Amino acid sequence: MMDDHMLELGIGVLLLLWGRKLFWLFVGVVGFLTGIQIASQFLPAESRIGVLAIALALGLLGAILAIFVQHLVVIFAGFLAGAHLIIRIFTLYNWQSDQYVWWLALLGGILGGILALMLLDWALIIFSSLIGANLVSQALPFDQAATVLFVIVLAISGILIQSRLLQRPIAAV
């Protein structure tokens, strides 16, 4: 599965560096990750193709909608990114209480949507950096403590890089 890891690594780096500029990619990735989480809950473990098909459909739908209705989709993507990050954190720490994880994921999603509504550019920068850092860390074989530290360092780096790009005036071509 080295190809899967290279794809995660490549997409993660793109999101870390240009997540705000490539908002459609960010929304597509969040849709894909959400599709995997949802489909994995409802389809049997043997249905890897079904899970991937649903995830790809949600990812493509998110990317296409992001191009046409950017603000609404970014708010929704903020919701999904907040929920995904909460679920990822609990998965990383092997917390098994499904009852509370879904409530906390809903709360994380609501907070993510509010953040996206209030601070559109900064929400894109922060969430794309967090999701990008998460994807990069999944592609590399670190233990739990190293993964947490690595994600924090990568996310901060992505936020700093993208914020500098945000402040840079666009040169006339």
Fold and architecture overview:
The protein has 173 residues and is mostly helical. It has one domain (2-167). It has seven helices and no strands. It has helices at 2-18, 23-42, 48-68, 70-92, 98-118, 120-139, 144-167. It is globular and about 50 Å long.
Task: Briefly summarize what is shown.
It contains 7 helices and no strands. With 173 residues, the protein is mainly α.
Topology of this structure?
Elements: H1 2-18, H2 23-42, H3 48-68, H4 70-92, H5 98-118, H6 120-139, H7 144-167
Helix pairs in contact: 1-6, 1-7, 2-3, 2-4, 3-4, 4-5, 4-6, 5-6, 6-7
Features of this protein?
173 residues; mainly alpha; globular
Contiguous helical run count: 7
**Rg over CA atoms:** 16 Å
Which series of helices and strands comes N to C?
HHHHHHH
Main beta-sheet strand count, sense and barrel state: none
Structural class: mainly alpha
Query: What's the average pLDDT?
Result: 85
Q: Domains counted in the coordinates: how many?
A: 1
Shape: globular
Low-confidence stretches: none
Strand content range: under 5%
The helix fraction, in percent, is: over 70%
SS elements, strand count: 0
Q: What is the first-to-last residue Cα distance?
A: 42 Å
